[in-house]
Structure formats: structure tokens, C-alpha cells
Amino acid sequence: MKILFVCTGNTCRSPMAEALLKDKVPGAEVQSAGIFAVPNQRPNDHAAAALKEIGIPLETKTQPINGKLLQWADVVLTMTTQHKQSLIIEHPDFQDKYYTLIEYVSNQDKKIWDELKRLYADYEEKRSRFIYKNQYKMDASELDRQLRNYLHEDWEKIHKLESSLINFDISDPFGGELGTYQQTRNELKKHIEALAKKMESTP
């Protein structure tokens, strides 16, 4: 499995993830890139120091995301939901490959997502039926007001479920002290260990 990690500048989170996975799974086919990366820059000094503390070298050079890298990868793991959304917009041809790292290794929200999909579908169906039935009976502002009242309980239920979802973002240490990078390293290390286990069980 060829894995591509993606963050913003490819100087902190994604190269740390790449190095951690290479250490955990020697021989893994893995690269990292950044949505706004400048080519051939060294990793952030604090990122390198945080990994050096646990005996892992960080010797990558930055590279911007491009179609060739996305074609190469089997799975593209982003550090945040926003990174994933940016890739979907800028490179829609590969969107089946895109996941946040946490999303890819976690199954704990699957039931919630399944329930949310059902609620979204029901909400949209009720909304469409209400508009179809009442669009010629009232002006636009009245229709909008009554539609909000009609769907209020459904929207509250959706919002409550959404708020129970885990945060899919890896914290950005950029600009912080070494301790901030150590926290991000520990966060990444936990999810990379889960990724390694998933890779072992994937044929």
C-alpha cells in the first residue's frame, strides 16, 4: 500500500507522520507533501528535534501536492478535514483516496455517520416535500420562516449528533515551542501505530 501524508507546508505534521510510519513499518512505501509547500525545504527544526528525542531521524525535503503524487498513492491521509476538503476541490479525480489520518484509522464514529446519513436524507426529503406543497401558498420569506419551524426538531437532532463526533484534525504545532511539537508528535505516534496495525491486516 502506497501512502501519501498531506498537510499545509510539508514541514511539520506530514513529514513527521512519514518518518513515524517508516520507523514503525520498515520498507513502507510512504511520502508526504503540502498543499502550499515550497519545494526542497528542510523540515521544521522543532519537528526534527521532537522526533530525534525518540530516535527517529527527519530528513525529508518539502514537496507540493500534484497529480503525479496523487496518482502514485493508494491512500492519501490528510492532517485535517480542511486539507481533505481542499484536495477534493483542487483534485477531484482522486477523491476516493482521501481521508483524514484519524478518520482512516478510527471506526468509533461509523455508527454515528451512518445515522447522520439517514437523518440528512430524511431532512432533505421533508424539506423538498414541504416546499413543493407550500411554495405557491405563501411568499418566500414566509415559506422560509415556516420551513425553519417545521424542520427545527430534525435540525436539532442532526446538530446534536454532529457535536458528538470526534475531532478529525491533528493539531498544528507551527509557530509553537518545542513542547507543542512534542504534543503533536505524541498525537501522531498514536494514530500511526493504529495505521500500522490496519496495514498489517489489509491484504
UniProtKB/TrEMBL annotation:
The keyword Hydrolase applies. GO terms for molecular function: protein tyrosine phosphatase activity. The keyword Hydrolase applies. Residues 1-198 form the Phosphotyrosine protein phosphatase I domain. It comes from the Bacteria. Transmembrane segments: none annotated. CDD domains: LMWPAP (cd16344). SMART domains: LMWPc (SM00226). Keywords: Hydrolase, Protein phosphatase. The active site is at 7 (nucleophile), 13 (nucleophile), 114 (proton donor). Belongs to the low molecular weight phosphotyrosine protein phosphatase family. PANTHER family: LOW MOLECULAR WEIGHT PROTEIN TYROSINE PHOSPHATASE (PTHR11717), LOW MOLECULAR WEIGHT PROTEIN-TYROSINE-PHOSPHATASE ETP-RELATED (PTHR11717:SF31). This is Protein-tyrosine phosphatase.
